[in-house]
Design a protein that fits this description.
Length: 201
């Protein structure tokens, strides 16, 4: 469908700097990437809860949640995966511009997919690799997806019949396979303070 050449994004009546000043923290986007069952969603929700307790404005964009709502029309072909990431990056950019800390819990298995976030969000984007091993993730298998993939019932499943490319230069690496979620959360919060996303306590 052709796009109109007359479309322009409206100018916001409240600037990003005003929102960040009111919130007391920067807007930013943090991608928690890793294999299925690496602990991304668990860590995202734990971070969200802690930030809420601190009065920090944050939102979680979970890969599964997006696929049952905004992206429910997409499958798992290469083009659909790319569109899934594109939509997530656009939504994240809108939220960051409104002063939110956006916590993305998504597999985003390929470097080229994660580069979509990097290009759209620029310096507001950070990659955190939840580096649980395939063996650990497959042992957890909370949804039974690994077992189904091994039986050939799920095609293109990341880690079994589709690749996962670890981030070559992640902002932070967390061993979510060996470390308890509390330790990973503490390290993540410390890092957010170190890179001046969160105000000093």
């Amino acid at each position: 469908m052709p796009r109109s050449a007359d479309l322009l994004a409206p100018t916001a009546s409240i600037s990003r700097l005003q929102r960040e000043a009111r919130n007391g923290h920067r807007g930013t986007a943090i991608l928690l990437t890793g294999l299925p069952a690496a602990g991304k969603s668990t860590l995202a929700q734990a971070l969200h809860a802690e930030l809420f307790e601190r009065g920090v404005q944050s939102v979680v964009l979970d890969g599964d949640g997006l696929r049952v709502g905004l992206n429910r029309d997409l499958g798992f072909t290469d083009s659909d995966r790319l569109e899934n990431i594109r939509r997530a990056s656009e939504l994240a950019a809108l939220l960051v511009e409104n002063g939110q800390i956006v916590i993305l819990a998504m597999i985003a298995p390929l470097v080229e997919l994660r580069e979509v976030f990097a290009r759209r969000l620029g310096e507001d984007y950070h990659e955190v690799w939840c580096s649980a091993s395939l063996a650990v993730c497959e042992q957890r298998d909370p949804k039974g997806h690994y077992a189904r993939a091994r039986r050939g019932e799920l095609a293109g499943f990341t880690g079994v019949s589709a690749p996962y490319e670890p981030p070559p230069c992640a902002s932070l690496v967390l061993d979510t396979g060996a470390q308890p979620i509390e330790a990973c959360l503490d390290r993540l919060l410390t890092w957010l303070g170190e890179c001046a996303v969160l105000p000093k306590r």
